[in-house]
Fold this sequence. Notes:
Layout: E1 6-11, H1 17-27, E2 30-35, E3 38-43, H2 45-54, E4 62-69, H3 73-81, E5 94-103, H4 110-129, E6 140-148, E7 151-157, H5 179-187, E8 197-199, H6 206-215, H7 237-250, E9 259-263, H8 266-278, E10 285-289, E11 303-306, H9 314-317, H10 320-333, E12 338-343, H11 348-352, E13 358-364, E14 367-374
Helix pairs in contact: 2-7, 3-4, 5-6
Amino acid sequence: MANQIFELMAPCHFGMEAVLKREIFDLGYEISQVEDGRVTFLGDAEAVCRANIFLRTAERILIKAGSFRAVTFEELFQGTKAIPWENFIPEDGKFWVKKAGSVKSKLFSPTDIQSVMKKAMVERMKSAYRREVIPETGSSYPLRVFLYKDQVTIGLDTTGESLHKRGYRKLAAKAPIEETLAAALILLTPWKADRILVDPFCGSGTFPIEAAMMAAHIAPGMNRSFLAEDWSELIPRKCWYEAMDEAAEQVDDTVSVDIQGYDADGDVIRSARANAEAAGVGHLIHFQQRPVAELSHPKKYGFLITNPPYGERLEDKESLPPLYAQLGVRFRALDAWSAYIITSYEDVEKYMGRKADRNRKIYNGMLKTYYYQFSGPKPPRRSGSYGDGR
Length: 390
């Protein structure tokens, strides 16, 4: 089974498909399809392990079990039953449809979709394993199902808890940004490890921590476990060991970086420090209790990458104009810097004093936000420097 080639599906935040596609390509895999919020690629058992451990911007890794069209529950039943589940799930495997999503399809009730598919799978497994009862006492094989324009796509979830759960965020500030989204937003900038990065609203430290992990080549999945580690029939245990060894060999935590995180709240800074220590990058980040009014840096060509308060509650809205005004003043005082700001607040450009060079619409959960990109000048090329010089 180890040499079997799977179609692997990696869901991601809407708008981040190009970033994830580049990550998968850099891991050495062939992309077969890019859709809204999902990239599909080809890979073997080893790829399942490496994708889970190395991809920074994917939400999870699914093995595509099958795809078919269904406009009635009978078609859903027959289509599900036709999939060779015995090739994926052992005789004692525990299986269920964990999540069913439906867009522009005749079948739309998640509970009905889940129950019909479960029945069909039980029928198939009973027949394949010649049993009256399927015990379901073994490892877990949860499924995720997407219906789009009556096309049913079924994936086996190899990940378990979403990949944004890196294992380092023990303490979260309010309204934290997901680690996968933070990583994607950093990868959308030209920042490299030899450039300064400051987050003036660092909260639980996600942007600085993700940047430091990139700089030190720490794979995001190194400190957590995955559901498919128990699927020894499908994914040999040695594939996990080899992928983890590969990740361990790449770590360089002696790298020299200038990454800083500020927040006005001292308790928040303490939790950010604890998170950074848990991620193995505490020594690479300078955290400090500092309000945005005191944001400064003596050097040129740095990056602000930040997720400021949005003012989701009405009483917070009044504090936003002076906050963003201060951010604008401090940004203009920095010499030749770039700023990347994700927020749902719509007066950012007014207070930054200029129009953004780029502005992406991004859904942060169910909240529509914008990623304002204010590009500074490129530094002069240094002889012998690496990177793209931006």
